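User: I want to check something. If I give you two sequences, will you return the structure for each one separately, not as a complex?

Assistant: Yes, each is folded on its own. Here is the first sequence with its structure:
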Amino acid sequence: MALLITKKCINCDMCEPECPNQAITMGAEIYEIDPNRCTECVGHYGTPTCQKVCPIDNTILQDPTLIESNEQLWEKFVVMYHGDRL
């Protein structure tokens, strides 16, 4: 599943530069994650880097409305980075 930044976000700017998929951008009030680009760092790291660097606990969570398996996240990664070779 894609990740979701909750309203607990303090706009500290820590998560955005850490996202290897450039899925995090500033929204109207807080940072937002583009679910089409978020692979939960599958293909890059073992755990989501945005969650690791966020100074506020439970601010970046799995989005329960966008359930994806690890296989689906891997496929999204492959298409984003190697789609021209498929």
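And separately, the second sequence with its own structure:
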Amino acid sequence: MMKVEIFQPGAEHRAAFLAAVQRSESLLGGWVSPPDTPEKYADYLRRYSADTHYSYLARTRDGNLVGCINLNEIVRGALQSAYLGYHAFSPNQGKGLMKEALSAVISSAFGEHELHRLEANIQSGNVRSVGLAKSMGFRLEGYSPRYLKIDGEWRDHERYAITSEDWAVEAAAARDQSKDS
């Protein structure tokens, strides 16, 4: 049985989201800049109401927010690709919950959204995030100097990617492993 559920955020989740961002400030600082005011949260909802962006929140069965996973800049046509971004919320990091949530979103990206490729750009010093991407089957494809501006600073990132074919192999291996447990 899944320990988390994913859902698309709405106005009714604002208070819980902003509280999660506030209590996670030391965890998130320097890595990502999630919405931290009601105005920024409203902008976030507007951005993710477009067909080129999807956002998912993950929560435990008792309603505690685990993290946020975004599919950004979806390109259709011959590419069928998106940028994947994610971050956990305290105190739920390091418990395997984001891996479960990320697995559900990736399955949705390659299934429901019919994408072929996801790319995750991660700062190399973010060891936990790099480890999570690798554990999901993402492969390192390159290095992008001064790729993203975070907290007013241009940050270098490593570029990881996975295709729907790679994910099918990962998902099958995970199913086989759960049968053996």
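Because they were folded independently, the notes below concern the second chain alone. Residues 117 and 163 are 4 Å apart (CA to CA). The chain has a mean pLDDT of 93.
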